[in-house]
Amino acid sequence: MNSYLENELQKRYNLHRFWTCPEKSVFLETHRNSIRAIVGNASAGADAKLIDDLPKLEIISSFSVGLDKIDLGKCKEKGIRVTNTPEVLTEDVADLAIGLILALLRRLCECDRYVRSGKWKYGDFKLTTKFSGKSVGIIGLGRIGAAIAKRAQGFNCPINYYSRTEKPDVGYKYYPTVVELAQNSDILVVACALTDETRHIVNREVIDALGPKGVLINIGRGPHVDEKELVKALTEGRLGGAGLDVFEEEPHVPEELFGLENVVLLPHVASATVETRTAMADLVLGNLEAHFAGKSLLTPVV
Amino acid sequence: MAESPLVLVQRPPTFDFMDELLSRNFPVLTTHHTSSAPLLVFLSRHASSVRAVVSIGRFKIDADFLSHLPSLRLIVCTSVGTDHVDLPECKRRGIAVTNAGEAYSEDVADYAVGLLISFLRRIPAADRYVKSGQWAKCGEFKLGIKLSGKRVGILGLGSIGSLIAKRLEPFGCIISYNSTCQKQSIPYLYYPDVVSLAANNDVIILCCALNDQTRHIVNREVMESLGRNGIIINVGRGGLIDEKEMVKCLVDGVIGGAGLDAFEKEPGVPVELFGLDNVVLSPHSAVATPGSLDNVVQLALANLKAFFSNQPLISPVRLN
């Protein structure tokens, strides 16, 4: 948990650090009638059971834009408010997506290692893959997807996208299925929300369509991608490469990927800058403050 | 049939990517001697008919070399930089020089942006953190620095500098520049010297030519002006920076950090940099894609064909 957020919550409220409780059921027994708010994040939210266990729960304020860890249906049913942190992290996430593409295609991590290990004295590094002009296919053209598209256009990349509905005014090429998007793109970027419909949206068929010259970039959620299939495709050379910021069971990452030089692995850092995490924390705090003061929420989802 | 060579190719042994195309088009003589004496003897014996030299790699083309090629009238460089060529001597001898023009510009611009994002968001270190198993053991990684809204000063707004600016604008960066050419049509803010460029920016990106005026143009004064949160990205030549001072400034926190693709004595890199976490290092790879190599091969061929048919050269370098 972000220490600035933790400190501020500690100052303003009676804060319970749920992740430190050795016996969560005991904690819930003791405190169930006093908990009025939950602050969650990308890895921990509130499922139906937890919501049911907290009869006095009024609001869930998530330190993330993703809501996949919260049972929104249950919240709607019980009149529990939910807030997240949209927009403040859009730029950082989009920046990191492009950063992943460049680091992957131009082997920047390998290059840095190459120099630090002293190997450069014995020979030049090999040729890498050009980014400019490559076609970029984006799954999900929301705030983050649109920001990625805008940045990729600066590199003369033709932009393709898949979305639940076609967006007529964007000027990018729409594909009605993710497989077709993958067939027609050099670089496939996952930038949609994680829902029941989008779980494993990048499956074996999509990975095969992307192929040995294609690369996958995931700055969405780990479960967007069938990770087992992805690992197989990469270790068997059927996929050109991957830049991944998220995984199905964070912080556990399939170790088969550790030795691959056509894979860049990041520890879920797409919104992890000092500036953005502070802005996200301020949104969480601002939403809680508004709620308890009976004012309009800043960034309500439910 | 032993035709007198018209084209001399001077290249390191492994850089043979142009051999086939050149020998298909011209009688070619190839050498990869790097030290003077054997090379000059070689030239005296074999190169009197050579009218064009294709220079691949960093071998110095100096007055001595030129004096052993009496028929030489053209030097085709496969680099953009021509700091390894004695240009005044070429001018004196009536030898034209061409360089890589815009063959590499996109790849170098891409790379500069890649180095900057990699630095700010700690990508190489984060990748190491995951691949060494530390994420599962040690928890959250260090926070990075936001790129959007950063003020970026470009030193040298030529072909490469302009493409860098075009790429950084959609990221919300505020672009300014210092360059030998200040044009009304350029939409970015101009600073008259490097110190003021550094003083007013969070990042400076070096992509100007290396010559007598620009050697060590990034010196201690510029780095102090850039300040303890300031970042240098170098996709130009190592000689643009006073490397000894830069190492001190990085170690002592006078500047925030650097992304470096070039060094003063490549492939030598100051060892003090290897242990720093506020640098991203790269082995002069900004141009190294098949696309860029293809471009430069085609360009070299086009320059040679133009030369031998008395047409205007495609990418001539100004010699004064």
From TrEMBL, chain A:
GO terms for molecular function: glyoxylate reductase (NADPH) activity; hydroxypyruvate reductase [NAD(P)H] activity; NAD binding. Residues 98-270 form the D-isomer specific 2-hydroxyacid dehydrogenase NAD-binding domain. Residues 20-301 form the D-isomer specific 2-hydroxyacid dehydrogenase catalytic domain. Belongs to the D-isomer specific 2-hydroxyacid dehydrogenase family. GyaR subfamily. It holds the Pfam family 2-Hacid_dh. GO terms for cellular component: cytosol. Keywords: Glycolate pathway, NAD, NADP, Oxidoreductase, Photorespiration, Pyruvate. This is Hydroxyphenylpyruvate reductase. GO terms for biological process: oxidative photosynthetic carbon pathway. Transmembrane segments: none annotated. It comes from the Eukaryota.
Automatic annotation (TrEMBL), chain B:
Residues 45-317 form the D-isomer specific 2-hydroxyacid dehydrogenase catalytic domain. GO terms for molecular function: glyoxylate reductase (NADPH) activity; hydroxypyruvate reductase [NAD(P)H] activity; NAD binding. InterPro entries: D-isomer_2-hydroxyacid_DH (IPR050223), D-isomer_2_OHA_DH_cat_dom (IPR006139), D-isomer_DH_NAD-bd (IPR006140), NAD(P)-bd_dom_sf (IPR036291). GO terms for biological process: oxidative photosynthetic carbon pathway. Residues 113-286 form the D-isomer specific 2-hydroxyacid dehydrogenase NAD-binding domain. It comes from the Eukaryota. It holds the Pfam family 2-Hacid_dh. Gene3D superfamilies: NAD(P)-binding Rossmann-like Domain. SUPFAM superfamilies: Formate/glycerate dehydrogenase catalytic domain-like (SSF52283), NAD(P)-binding Rossmann-fold domains (SSF51735). GO terms for cellular component: cytosol. Keywords: Glycolate pathway, NAD, NADP, Oxidoreductase, Photorespiration, Pyruvate. Belongs to the D-isomer specific 2-hydroxyacid dehydrogenase family. GyaR subfamily. This is Glyoxylate/hydroxypyruvate reductase HPR3-like. The lineage of its organism: Eukaryota, Viridiplantae, Streptophyta, Embryophyta, Tracheophyta.
